[in-house]
Amino acid sequence: MLGNSKTRTWKVIIILALVCMLLIATSVILVFQNPEEEQTTNIIQEPNDMSKSVLLISIDAFRHDYLECAVAPNLKGMSDQIHIQKLIPPFPSKTFVSHYSQITGLYPAWSGIVANKMYDADHNKTFSIGSASSYDSFWWWGEPFWISNQREGHLSGTVFWVASDVGIYGRNESPTYPTYYLSYDRDITYKDRIDQFFEWLELPKSKRPNFYTLYFETVDDMGHKYGPCSEEVIEAVDNVDGWIGYLIRGLEARGLWKTENGLNVIVDSDHGMTKTSKDKVILIDDYIQIDTSLIHCAHMEHLHLYPSLKNDFHYNDLECQERNSRLLSKSNSRGRANLNQNSPSQEYEAQVVNFSPVTQIIPAEGQEDQVFEKLVNASQNWTVYKKEDVPSKYHYSWEGNDRIKPIIVIIDLGWSISDRAYYEKYPDNFNGGNHGYANDYDDMAGFFVASGPAFVQENNSIEKLENLEIYQILQKIVGLQNPAPNNGTMKNIESLFK
Ligand SMILES: [Zn+2]
């Protein structure tokens, strides 16, 4: 009995020792297991089915025909599946206007962003891109796609998109941001932008977005400086194409490129580009007395983020200080400078809100007809409309939007508009390229290619598509149940999908 009892005790001790050794061995394995192996385990437990997810990439100012100028093997490869010949920007074809129209599915009159530079007289507020004012949710109407997406329990991750670093209401009761986002910073390298996307892509399923964005600005920078299809633009296109290649290789390595469960990828642009020259400039103050203080001197703190605005913002800080003090001394007898008045001083016949191919003009009170008459036939190279007469094809005369001003000047393709003082000081700023013209010029048309399991095997037959349909395309891919009201039409995009 005693012997048996001893044997049992030894057996228990041996079992306990074995259990202890096993526990120690397991903890050693856990301590030394590297994060990649852990991640592999996660991926096996939560398979990466990304067929209802989408990455939307914008290459700023990539004109519809740039694939013909450049080598761009990666973008050409994508065009084998889905290629829309011309992606039509909204009117006017400006960066902020277009990106926000795409992502809300709304024409600018209803999205709130009708120009890169705006003045709201009722609230006495000025909007200019790159300024603190552009982070005010007041300006941003409609609902960007990331909010619609998150309202249905999905997550979004944005490495830049116009307004993705602004709190916007949409249909929510408080300002909402994308789940994960970076504030716009043009100094973040393209590699870091794409690696950030990969980081989000590798999150465990419960934390992983189904909607991502990326944005690249170099093609726009070179287009403004050297003109479309210049050597520098071609180099920029091929450079971005190389980064698209880096992205594709990363997706391939994860089994997410051109596979049944792969990620859907769209590459598009906000507008095209056309050649400009200092010999084609209309100087508006040759025809009327204008006040340009809204343009020249408001909110220049982040202008370095938007170098392509050199024709919109004309003076450096010192010149602005001098100009403002001049305005203030002139206006002492009247109390306020012209800067903050709802209508321009009687010293001027009109206030110009922005110098852009679509220019907004506020005539002085009582001088509406007189200013219109002076401008309408002044140049062979512009068309001048009263707001209510802007052609309906532009969807730009909604009376409910006060940010669209009483007189709209539309410059012919390739022309520029300025005041004489600035033009004489910086004539070379008008050489190069520009966009922002009426959206029915072919040169203003943008680019669209896509690849992924949600799309049909091949469709190159759509000749033109308005870019506000992007909202619907995203909605279709992720399967939104309750999209925000928008100007898109589902039947325009149905042929893209299986
Ligand atoms: Zn742009």
Automatic annotation (TrEMBL):
It comes from Anaeramoeba flamelloides. InterPro entries: Alkaline_phosphatase_core_sf, Phosphodiest/P_Trfase. The chain crosses the membrane at residues 12-32. The keyword Transmembrane applies. Signal peptide: none annotated. This is Ectonucleotide pyrophosphatase/phosphodiesterase. Pfam families: Phosphodiest. CDD domains: Enpp. SUPFAM superfamilies: Alkaline phosphatase-like (SSF53649). Keywords: Membrane, Transmembrane, Transmembrane helix.
